[in-house]
Amino acid sequence: MANSKEAQGDRTGDDTARKLLETVQGLTLELHPTRVVTEVGLDSALERDLGFDSLSRAELLARIERAFRVGLPDQLVASAETPRDLLRAILGSVTPRRGAQGRQPAPLPVEEAEAAPHGAQTLPEVLDWHVRTQPDRVQVHLYGDDDEPEAISYRALRAGARAIAAGLAARGLAPGQTVAIMLPTGRDYLCCFLGILYAGGIPVPIYPPVRAAQIEDHLRRHAGILANAGAVLLITVAEAKPVARLLKSQVPALHTVVIPDDLARDAGSFMAPALNGADIAFLQYTSGSTGQPKGVVLTHADLLANIRAMGRAIEVDSTDVFVSWLPLYHDMGLIGAWLGSLYYAMTLVLMSPLAFLARPQRWLWTIYRHRGTLAAGPNFAFELCLNRIPDEELDGLDLGSLRLLFNGAEPVSPQTLRRFADRFVRYGLHREAIAPVYGLAEVAVGLAFPPLGRGPLIDRIRRDVFVDEERALPADPGDAQALEYVACGQPLPGYEVRIVDGGGRELPDRHQGRLQFRGPSATSGYFRNPEATRALFDGDWLESGDLAYIADGDIYLTSRVKDVIIRGGRNIYPYEVEQAVGELDGVRKGCVAVFGSTDRASGTERLVVMAETRETEAAARAALEAHIAATTHDLLGLPPDEVVLAPPRTVLKTSSGKIRRAASRELYEQGRVGRKPRAVWWQIARLMAASLWPEARRAWRTARHVGYAAYVQALFWLLAPPVWLLVVLLPRAAWRWPAMRAGARLLLRLARVPLRVQGAEHLPKDTACVIVANHASYLDGIVLVAALDIPFSFVAKGELKRQPIARLFLNRIGAQFVERYDKQKGVADARRAADIARRGRALMFFAEGTLRRMPGLLPFHMGAFAAAADAGVPVLPITLRGTRSVLRDGSWFPRRGAIAVLIGEPIVPDGTDWAAAVRLRDAARGQILKRVGEPDLAGE
């Protein structure tokens, strides 16, 4: 009998939990109908995961009380952090529906398996979770020499990894020691990478040599990597053992060179060491395209944070199929393709990179065969598909299953995007599936992805303004000299980027500067390289090494910082010249390096174009040199100082095909290629004459920016005290607002900030309303006061009440204070706001509740809309544009810019209940989002 009662209590708890989660899920979908929300569980965070503010929590409690016919304590609005907290309160309340009164609720059963192990802290935990929940699910379809792939399940993958781990333990590997993997794509690579982790080691992926001619450079570069990593063991293929032994002789720490079969044969029982998220998961050595490679430290927490952010951005799930040929020693293939697929229980269809390079159509046909939904490659892969696949090899191909085709890891060509889309749409490819992305090893792999379904976005800008002033102004449609750059996406959820000038000050939109970033997967630095680590950080921001500008929230990469050539006071960007010269007859495409070489005598940079050619006849070589010089002149408006015609395989590249400009420059400066430099006196005379005016112009531009910022700050502090005194001393509110408005307009006028107001006819004359605006800058309040010809009450954060000067000023203009962190007071504040609106006073809310320095419209809080619905007054949506560029959050360095205030049509509530408030919010936010020209961040 007792067992029967306990079983009944268990069933009651299960039913209650299920019904509670349905209630929470329903409200979540109402609040965030377009937001990607992971499945609601009992331990989902109400605020962080589900986006519930204080009013949303109050609505949730009301629904729970109705659904369960219980009375819940008011403090749950503030204290409940998860649905489990609410469940305890429901089961602990005294109601007719509760069974087994006076007894603690029975433990809930284990929840059903999810599609991804969101609670895992390490990569072995991820694999263990999948083995527990779905051991025989195929994780990888691995293509080798046969047409039929080998299916590798989660169970088989872990068994192979643990065998490798046991072999490593038998050879004395200690936790925290580094193990290099020099293996091709295959089962052995997968098992060895995970096996090193199971054994407590740190994998160091390096690539095997492809050609015998590369062995010397390969050994030199990898000896440096292995020495820096302190690798004690190297796992490689049998064919590479002679090369590996040469490496061993140059790396003191390296004591063992083995093949995977050796480790599997030595496998025995072993005790896996404990791991946590802060442990290093692997060292990702940078490609070395701009200098010596450095080992990026990536922890398990870094990897999982980046994988989760990318998955959230692209709405990935276990039904996706990722088809990849990307090398597993490269972060895009290792993390983006394999580890991302492993985490989300996606099927990974894995091909050899060599199979793709030999016949790129195999990649496309494999996508078709497996109905792939995701695929990725660098720009050259798309060019290969365009140039190497004849039409007859594509008959019957259908790429309609692809929902995302990523282009990243090297500069993305606008021409390539256009040509690829134009050719393959006839084979079912959706243009909006093509997604240029941006990432780097220092952030694991992904930093910026475009919005889903948008397709490629290409920005055409004025060449003259960009070259002279580093401003990316849109070009006229007919401008034949316009530069084109591809939007590489917007920062992933939780990540931030900024553009800074030479002095480290943040730049407005459409100004080129150094791209810096920060986020949850940002590396802690370079392994055993404190000097490079110091250069990487600028406070809590990290240097990307790239030059870029931001427009409407998208990142536009322009060049690598170290690749920029400063000649005659101008910035020259190598990639465009390399691409154009590579198209010339007689030049080997993709084998051109443009770099600056410092002349030791003059201290100036010479522009050098190194191009590979097979031409040997003197007249043909002279004609080709002239053609290269003319092409460079046409693009840059100046000729190169030297054109170097080099034999094939002279221009050095990284493993992923990037031009190693620094290494190619070293070859040139050592006199191993090229011609004799021109006379030093001639270079000095010409460059000094050419650089005087550009350098003076650059210095004047910097001085002008600094002077403007100082001028505006001085204006503010001159005007603020008298305006504050007038507002505080004037006895009537009818006098205070004109005084404040006059001060705001005078500040903008004297600062020469153009203010455009559109839609003033929508301002109500004699009726109350709730004004709702986006919040981009601390200038927003001043701008609204200057722009709106009606008095209104600011709804200000409660913290300002604790600042005497601000409190006195705000009280005199009728501001209403709300608590952002006290949930119960927040509900009371919303009710008070509704009462004020009913009495005929206009209320002004910044509905995002906060501001941030990055472009983007945050989710709206419900307070303004609940007050409007309750009071039965219209919502007036106002869009602010330009304030963020003039004065960005975290900076007191104002910059020139224009500001627009766009007043929308009033939105009348269609009811007084919660649902009506939600509809008000969605309508107002939709209007603002349409006009603001910034990304939608409601999914963050």
Describe the protein in words.
The protein is 40% helix and 17% strand. It has 940 residues and is of the alpha/beta class. The chain has five domains: 2-92, Non-ribosomal Peptide Synthetase Peptidyl Carrier Protein, Chain A (Orthogonal Bundle), CATH 1.10.1200.10; 123-358, 3-Layer(aba) Sandwich (Rossmann fold); 458-562, Luciferase, domain 3 (Roll), CATH 2.30.38; 564-678, ANL, C-terminal domain (GMP Synthetase, Chain A, domain 3); 708-932, Glycerol-3-phosphate (1)-acyltransferase. The strands form nine sheets. Strands 2-1-10-9-11-12-13 form a seven-stranded mixed beta sheet, sandwiched between helices. α19 (574-582) packs across α20 (618-636). Mean pLDDT is 83; it is low at 4-9, 95-113 and 674-681.
Average pLDDT, to the nearest integer?
83
Report the CATH superfamily of the largest domain: ANL, N-terminal domain
Total number of beta strands: 34
In whole angstroms, the N-to-C terminal distance is 51 Å
CATH architecture designation of the largest domain: 3-Layer(aba) Sandwich
CATH class of the largest domain: Alpha Beta
The main β sheet shows up as: 7 strands, mixed
**Could you name the ranges where pLDDT drops below 50 across 5 or more consecutive residues?**
4-9, 95-113, 674-681
Rough outline: globular
Overall SS class: alpha/beta
Helix content: 40-55%
Looking at the structure, the CATH topology of the largest domain is Rossmann fold
Count of separate structural domains: 5
Helix segment count? 29
- The portion of residues forming beta strands comes to 15-25%
